[in-house]
Amino acid sequence: MSMSSVLWFRRDLRLHDHPALHAAASDGPVLALFVLDEALLRPAGAARIAYLHNALRALDATLRDRGGALVVRRGDPVDVVPAVVTEVGATAVHVSADFGPYGARRDRAVADAVPLVATGSAYAVSPGRVVKQDGDPFKVFTPFYRAWLAHGWRAPAGPPPDVDWITAASESIPTTSHDLPPAGEDAARTAWKAYCSRDLAAYADVRDRPDLDRTSRMSPHLKWGSIHPRTLLADLGPDAETYRRELAWREFYASVLHHWPDSAREYFRPELAQMAYDEPGVRLDAWRTGATGYPIVDAGMRQLLAEGWMHNRVRMVVASFLVKDLHIEWTHGARHFMRHLIDGDLASNQHGWQWTAGTGTDAAPYFRVFNPVSQGRKFDPHGDYVRRWVPELRGIDGAAVHEPWTVAQPPRDYPAPIVDHAVERKESLARYAAVRG
After folding, report:
1. Topology of domain 5-121, CATH
2. Measured distance CA(191)–CA(195) in Å, rounded
3. Residues 257-285 pLDDT 10s
């Protein structure tokens, strides 16, 4: 006798390569559920929430094509999920395992009320599986990467099974007027196929060039699970090592956060928590709005506000500038990113910031302070990225756009640099030395 179950979607908004869907379908009829959880929505900005809504609408459309529908409820999952189970007489709730600090606590609480069955996760190799020979977790990426490759991962779970979908009352999914990239599984699979045929072979050579815009932009799809990393890995040949490593960094940071959940908010290297920082104020505001007077920094921050996304090389540059030129604690920048990035992933974001700040795993040597001018000249050599996002500078040709204060007639509507990089680099190193003794 078949019994109905609930498939509770979270960061797995797709039907292909979805092990939990296969497990639910084997039980009998399935109700598709998504819970709008204020604990997760509250820290998110309008763009991230709008992108989520777009992904939910895409999933709902796919389900309707297959005779189902996405049931959306708002509230605390600890209350909502058991209520839905009772409402439809389900015998189990199927999920993709969540290894984040909040998600793990939430799932334990839900499991106290209803049978919760976890199958698969958002990762090719779930956090906790790749450890040292003595069982300790890795703190350094390179040995983690070797062990991760040696461990390997399963092949994609394949196309969705035939499912007898059941439905229930649902809240409507809010519409949005935000200009965002396409969301959802069809968009993800189409974009990935196009990227593989067009740009993947050149990834190692062009990935640091924001002016070329030839990265895959799969991070929002991975964040919301409209495509699974196994699907990407299955398409990577031996020549795609650089791209494979980038996927492994995502898995490494998820592993670190799983083993050290406090590292989402606290210093991974606690000895650096006593570093002297300046109080956030007008300089933080200038950084947030892209008005620092350093073109590559301002272009990145304006791209973030406009698109909910920023090129990865530029993320490192703007992070270094905040922490080491403006001497503002990394937590302020990490919070701003998590609010605005549509791909805002807690593990990758927090540990990426700690890497740049020199306080995390695989921390960049603290004396590595990105020079915003030389970074701009190296990775945006013709100035096209800056001119795209900083219209005040479009009258300056070539690489001179990275130093607008040096041209014969600097633009009047663009600010002068708010700090002297050479001076602030020395100050940053002095503050570091004071902590290190």
Report:
1. Rossmann fold (3.40.50)
2. 6
3. 999 999 999 999 988 899 999 999 999 99
